[in-house]
């Protein structure tokens, strides 16, 4: 597994949420990772998602926060990040950081893909929801463009997001692989070979 992805699973919860929101449709190694590394260096005190929520609130708007701390001018992405942070805090709570992380890990394991539909957060669909679950330890996959293309190439026809997810779940179970590892292998092979690092 690539070093950047190995590190993704171990970053502080606040960084994992930024990773999730910024990685969709953006090159991971060249765009997302440098911004995460810079934020980590400049804001070592921001560990929990609650810390991140508090930091965002010190700026005039989520957009200003994203521009000034993550060097990215995209109001829609900033709005998505703010909404996701606000929602994740309802899961993590505001207790000790170890308890917050435990709450997020329990959520990630217990959640279902269909749960994403109730959120209605713009720019945060099924693939993002699933990637967030993966970042907090769930053994699942995210039906991004790489996963859909992989499943379609195996079947000889295109599939929906849910079909891709369900078929990979079945395949991983049949061959005894962790689904998260299979997802990572597909992503590394497809994204790095094509230069399109996220779907």
Keyphrases for this structure?
199 residues; disordered C terminus; 11 helices; mainly alpha; 67% helix; 2 domains; globular
What does this structure look like?
With 199 residues, the protein is mainly alpha-helical. It folds into 2 domains: 3-128; 139-199. Helix content is 67%, strand content 0%. It has helices spanning 3-8, 13-23, 28-42, 49-57, 62-70, 75-92, 97-110, 126-135, 145-155, 161-175, 179-194. The longest helix has 18 residues, at 75-92. The two termini are 18 Å apart.
Cα end-to-end separation? 18 Å
Mean of residue pLDDT? 88
Low-confidence stretches: 195-199
Number of strands: 0
Globular, elongated, flat, extended or rod-shaped: what is the shape? globular
**DSSP summary: helix tally:** 11
Strand portion: under 5%
């Amino acid at each position: 597994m690539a070093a950047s992805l190995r590190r993704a699973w171990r970053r502080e919860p606040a960084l994992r949420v930024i990773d999730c929101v910024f990685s969709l449709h953006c090159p991971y190694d060249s765009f997302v990772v440098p911004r995460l590394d810079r934020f980590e260096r400049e804001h070592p005190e921001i560990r929990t998602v609650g810390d991140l929520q508090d930091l965002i609130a010190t700026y005039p708007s989520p957009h200003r926060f994203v521009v000034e701390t993550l060097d990215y001018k995209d109001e829609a992405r900033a709005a998505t990040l703010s909404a996701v942070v606000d929602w994740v805090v309802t899961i993590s709570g505001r207790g000790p950081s170890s308890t917050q992380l435990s709450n997020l890990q329990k959520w990630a394991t217990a959640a279902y893909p269909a749960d994403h539909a109730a959120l209605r957060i713009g720019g945060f669909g099924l693939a993002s929801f699933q990637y967030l679950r993966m970042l907090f330890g769930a053994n699942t996959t995210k039906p991004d463009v790489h996963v859909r293309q992989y499943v379609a190439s195996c079947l000889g026809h295109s599939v929906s997001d849910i079909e891709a997810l369900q078929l990979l779940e079945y395949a991983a179970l049949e061959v005894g692989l962790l689904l998260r590892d299979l997802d990572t292998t597909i992503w590394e092979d497809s994204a790095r070979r094509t230069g399109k690092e996220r779907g």
